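Consortium newsletter contribution from the modelling node. Members have asked for a concrete example of what our holo predictions look like. Here is one, prepared for the zinc ion complex that several groups have been discussing at recent meetings.
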Amino acid sequence: MTDHDALAAIPKLELHLHLEGAAPPAFIRDRAKRNHIDLSRVFDEQGQYRWQGFAGFLSTYDAVCTALKTPQDFHDLTLAVLDNSASHGVIYTECFLSPDFCGGGDLNAWRDHLAAIDAAAQTAQAQSGIVMRAIVTCIRHHGPEQARKVAICAQETAGQFVTGFGMAGDEARFQPKDFIWSYDAAREAGLGLTAHAGEWAGPEAIRATLRDLRVSRIGHGVRAIEDRAVQDLLAERGVVLEICPRSNIAQGLYPKLHDHPVAKLRDAGVKVTVSTDDPPFFGTGMTQEYSALADCFGWGRDDFADIARIALDAAFIDAPARAVLQNRLEEACPTPT
Ligand code: HPA
Ligand code: ZN
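And here is the predicted structure:
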């Protein structure tokens, strides 16, 4: 077996994947055509997504989402995304789903879209064994009022499939405290909590997110590297970072993987996990992430098994389903005694 094949075969748990952001460009081109939407500006000559810088990324992302109109579009997208994840050895994935892109925050429209996504997740699980759970996600730059609608969608549909609440979008807009109402509502509904922070804003944004939104996980959080006290806080509280190395590099946060803080954060005792964020935008996939980490930092099977166990502990999933995944992981990567 080549190294690449060996890495592809390691069971992986992905905690940070945006469903729309994982849409293959060919899928979006097809839906844009069917739904009569002109999206020519979002594709480059090679047919890949065209974007530059974080603002450009968000703008292309929003445009891509306009091609997805119906519950059937989201059903088919979910099948395509899960099929691809399973081909990378992913056994468990949490996807960010945004009611803002599924009916604009209207509860009934959200229920229809969610039912279609859930049905696709069941089909994918029956086909490849991959298990999916949903993190209902507000978009920060759409503002706190819209986030309340999203939190109500999350509250009303919390259950076996919807297990988390999150926030993505432009970190330069609004403060974590502006979203306290939404996070409190989600917490009361029993949802696991995560928020993007410390990606574009500095370590103080991580501190504010922990204080005001009381999350157990942070999306990215890489800029904790700039403040030892924030690293200590994360380590002491066992907060898990959903780190997406290639996303940070593609968006220009760090020039190369060598400069990325993932290994230093791990060495500082912070719990890190590895995800792809929006893989076709960043030219990545879980196997490519693992491969690059192995080459750059010398991580091997034991390191990746350790990361998978951290992800499993931090997963927003019920105990029986967690136990099934634990058995699958243990079978492939026995815990050293
Ligand atoms: N950051 C913020 N918003 C996003 C991202 C991200 O990495 N991906 C999709 N929306
Ligand atoms: Zn993200």
